Amino acid sequence: MRFLFPYTENSVFDIAFALRDMGHTVDVFDKKPLIVNTVESQPYCQEIKRALQTSIYDYVITYLYIPELSTVCEECGVDYIAWVYDSPLLSLHHASIYHSHNRLFLFDQAQANRLRAIGVEHIYHLPLAAMVSRADNLCFEETDAEAYGHEIAFVGQLYSQNMYNDCIHMLPETIATPCKHYLLHELCNWHQMRPWPVFPKAGIDAIHSLDFHNKDLQTFEFPEEYYWGIMLLSRKLAEMERMTALSTLAESHPVDLYAPIGTCVPDAIRLHPPLNYYTQAGKVFRHSKINLNLTLPSIESGVPQRVFDILSFGGFLMTNAQPEIEDFFTPGRDLVVFHDLDELKSLTDYYLSHPKEREAIAQNGYETVKENYSYEKVLAQVIYLCEQEKEH
């Protein structure tokens, strides 16, 4: 098959690499990255359109979802596969989502259900994947264990720059107090799914009075009550959970964080600059005793990319509970799941002192990802489902 793969801003090229490894022809368009959450005209889409008009492609495939590209594919009669790894994704809430040539693959079942409920067709729920072949072929140096190995490592940002911090002090107490109660109730509480928080109308009116408008809401049909709930509460909850979990563990163990330069953390947490995704991140995953995953609260049910990445490098993973995690992995065998802060602490103490169990779980997790969730395996499912659509 022949695929056209336009590069999406801030994404990677793993889909293109995997499709080529599978024997498909892939034309990569990366002269100018496509922007996702916009409907403003992107001239590069017209170059893609000309390619679709002059050459024969079975599919266009991208990370995330680009509305203008969907329109181009609809006009050219070419099926458009969007591999979505983010939740929520504003661009999914655009009129183009109803195009007949869209083939949308979402990792979060709750998000997929929301779109199906408003009549969007050609929605599929599949897990994310890892580029296992890159992990297997990464060159490890003798000095890597010392340079990249830690007792506890977390690779990810803290979301300390968020709208809640910018405006909570300006909101009336009738709005601010319930927000604070929500955050305290949900903090490090992963015992059940946390649906997107709904921001009350009075709160939305207060936000508008402070001139905290967002032009995206004029473009995408994303309900305001969810948008502001996520922007104010889910993003703040992410900051609080990550800071609380890392600071708590740092009271007893060394904790190393890889985050954007300028991130403010307590002295007990050792801060490192961001890693190169292709060449460095895997060395941290492989050599650290415990790798943490703390899922963004806006991901309601799905298993995020970090889980697959860590396991693909044979890293030992401890992750907060997510509703879908047992659909793909066996807790205690492939990875370790915690439901609250106390469980996180006790499991950390246990596995730091039981290296053989830790190593066995890491090996099992690697084998599960290699067997079931390599890009090649999941993309084969994507292609099968798309080809089935053509037969009906």
SSE layout and pairing:
Elements: E1 2-8, H1 14-21, E2 25-34, H2 43-54, E3 59-63, H3 67-76, E4 79-84, E5 102-106, H4 109-117, E6 123-125, H5 132-137, H6 144-148, E7 152-155, H7 163-167, H8 173-186, H9 201-209, H10 216-219, H11 224-250, E8 255-258, E9 269-272, H12 281-287, E10 290-293, H13 305-312, E11 317-320, H14 325-328, E12 336-338, H15 341-352, H16 355-372, H17 375-391
Parallel strand pairs: 1-2, 1-3, 3-4, 4-5, 5-6, 7-8, 7-10, 8-9, 10-11, 11-12
Helix pairs in contact: 2-3, 8-11
| Helix/strand/pairing category | alpha/beta
Average pLDDT score: 95
* N-to-C span: 19 Å
Q: Low-confidence runs (pLDDT<50, min 5 residues)?
A: none
List how many beta strands DSSP finds. Answer: 12
Strand content: 15-25%
Helical percent range?
40-55%
Strand order of the largest sheet: 2-1-3-4-5-6
Overall 3D form: globular
Give the topology string: H per helix, E per strand: EHEHEHEEHEHHEHHHHHEEHEHEHEHHH
Counting DSSP H or I runs of 4 or more residues, the number of helices is 17
Calculate Rg over CA atoms.
22 Å
Largest sheet: 6 strands, parallel
Explain the overall architecture.
45% of the residues lie in helices and 15% in strands. It contains 17 helices and twelve strands.
Tag the structure with descriptive keywords.
392 residues, alpha/beta, 6-stranded parallel β-sheet, 17 helices
Can you describe this structure in just a few lines?
Helices cover 45% and strands 15% of the residues.
